[in-house]
Amino acid sequence: MATDKLDTFPKLLLSNANRFSDRPAMRHKDFGIWQTWTWAETLTQVRDFSLGLKALGFVAGDKVAIVGTNRPRLYWALTAIQALGGVPVPVYSDSVAEEMVYVLQHAEVRFAVVQDQEQTDKILSIKDELPELETIIYDWERGLGDYDEPFLHSFATVQELGRGADDAARQKWKDQINAGKGEDLSVMLYTSGTTGKPKGVMLSYDNLVISARNANAFDGFDENDEIIAYLPLAWVGDHIFSYAQSLTSGYCVCCPESPDTVTENRREIAPTYFFAPPRVFEGLLTDIMVRMEDASALKQKMFHHFLGVANRVGEKLLNGDSVGLLDRLRYKLGDFLVYGPLKNRLGMSRMKVGYTAGEAIGPEIFSFYRSLGLNLKQLYGQTEASVYITAQPDGQISADTVGTPSPDVEIEIADNGEVLYRSPGTFIGYYKNDEATRETKNAEGWVKTGDAGFLDAQGHLRIIDRAKDVGKLADGSMFPPKYIENKLKFFPNIKEAVAIGDGREYAAVMLNIDLQPVANWAERNNIAYGSYQELANHPKVYDMMGDHVDQVNRDLAAEERVAGAQIARFLVLHKELDADDGELTRTMKVRRSLINERYGDLIDALYDGSSEKFVETEVVFEDGRKGKIAATVQIRDAKRHAPEAMKEAAE
Fold first, then answer.
1. Which CATH class is domain 3-204+211-218+229-257?
2. Which of 290, 283, 336 shows the shortest CA–CA distance to 309?
3. Which residues contact 610 (CB under 8 A, 6 or more apart)?
4. 647 confidence band (pLDDT: 50, 70, 90)
5. Is 568 helix (H, G, I), strand (E, B) or coil?
6. How far are the Cα atoms of 215, 348, 382, 443, 519 from residue 420, in angstroms, in the given order?
7. Thinking of the domain 278-465, which architecture would CATH place it in?
8. Do domains 3-204+211-218+229-257 and 278-465 have the same CATH topology?
9. pLDDT in tens, 194-220
């Protein structure tokens, strides 16, 4: 079948089972052993489950919740549902039952395919609120043997039903697949709900298939590549990287044994394609540096010497720039002694392309990985765009841009600075929310990203902040909170930051320490503490945070547009911002309105001259119980620096 006729994922699966019959399609580490399914075997698994669903009464148009972590059966369920004309609705597996209710009600799900007993119990606890839900199918049978509800079925049992289908039913199943069209609804992915209720983003096969093919061509991915699937199934990134791009290229998707073993499993697989948000790359680097503190003096000296070589010439070699013979030899020796073993330890020894997105990554962190010879790049995207809006072409990599428009994508900057785009990946609309669709996408197909940015002289996009969040201080100076927060989070000791200042006399920030690196630092410096609160409130930790704030202020002073937004006061929060407490979304984005309300007393203290403030904050424990954390939070002043423009004028 011609490529342009392979316009749905079930059609692509049929084609791949023929073209790549014996090549690996999926791997999963289970009970300590990597199991592999070829494309032909994957087709059989999908077909049996799909026909089993049909036997249970599944009809075209049915919505199906998919709840769990990255497991082959949940990916197979996506295609099995689509083969019958149904629509999968992936849900974040770490959502509590109360968070799931809205999505499952709004999507009108009739079936749910879940991972295990935990997810089954969540659904059962809210089933009375889901009148449309008729059937629950679970993957992992452990702990569910005594459940006798008639609407509960194991994945294996449903597949057994499908295996009983005759040849005529199987042919009819193929005919139904071949009747599918690229314009058909493929999946519904719900937004994280940063500013309100989550919205169901409807993406067609054309949106996803064309975007995935363009991405594969952009970076040269084919059936010989491999990726490790560990990102949330409900996130559009995983749907593109671990599903759409795999089906359109034929590459193999590897599922880890558990979310806790991702790093170890990545080391075993050494994928050629890897995506991670900046916090993952930051965490890996922090772990490397902490380990080196415990290494012998000789190893430390060798490590730092060759890192110096890499910092000087590594990125030049990666970009194909001219480098002297002696430096090439030094780098080659460094690769043998340091870079190679380090990449192997990270599970990146075969990485052809790595991407990061979602937040700005620190320039030093970004350069560190690239200096090792790892082709780490940045992209900019959204659920509504089927991920890709911009990406960085090889040889045009910079830490402070997110690249040029992706293939077939057009970008415009509105008069108010908001980034607009139009592309084949542009979503159909928001499910049952025509008003929100019209507010986001106009009749010509231009989509408002909600982000403020500009195209530089080289045509690369630079993102400043969320357009709605960019404010002004009382003196009229620009106040871009996200821009300030990202600069603060470049420091590995700062896990989260919240900047305040719109309409106020000056900018101020609330910080979260990152417990692992700060605890390691405390141990090395003989600083005793008994809790997160005690460590966060330690005077020397405040001194460290003050140094970081001062460095950010120096950076801001050097940028004319944001020099007026330097931080005047800061505090370190007594608890981590937590998604379970509603302070972050499930994709780890700050819910500003809730933060402003919950920490209103601390925000007031940042502006009334207080040096400390006693607060009590409600928290939700892992078992669902609620409690309160009380603390006296210190507040410190920060030095602001003369803008570079003023310095030059004075000189």
1. alpha beta
2. 336
3. 635
4. low
5. strand
6. 20, 35, 12, 13, 43
7. 3-Layer(aba) Sandwich (3.40)
8. yes
9. 557 889 999 999 999 999 999 999 999
